[in-house]
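Supplementary notes for students who missed Thursday's class. We covered one full example, reproduced here. Read the sequence, then the structure, then the short commentary at the end.
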Amino acid sequence: MAQTVDLIWLVAGYISLGIKAWALSDILKAPAEAFPFLNRQTKNIWIAISLGSVLGHILFGAWGFTGVIGLIACAVYLADTRPKINEMTGRR
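Structure (token representation):
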């Protein structure tokens, strides 16, 4: 039973890292001019947040403080900022 739970946490950790990497790659591709028009953080701030999240995940683990906060921050970008940037720029 414990091995099953450990496997679930391991898979969830890899999924978490994938979400963070997805957010980082999307931020890097987004045009910097779009961020100020949305009254959101600048592109450089989002890069710092998502890169810090990926590094925190790698250095301190997926479920430590930095891992969880980083996952929340990247989820906020993907759920709130990304759709608005895509709508504004016509990206898919």
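Commentary. The chain has a mean pLDDT of 93. Residues 21 and 87 are 22 Å apart (CA to CA). If anything here is unclear, bring it to office hours.
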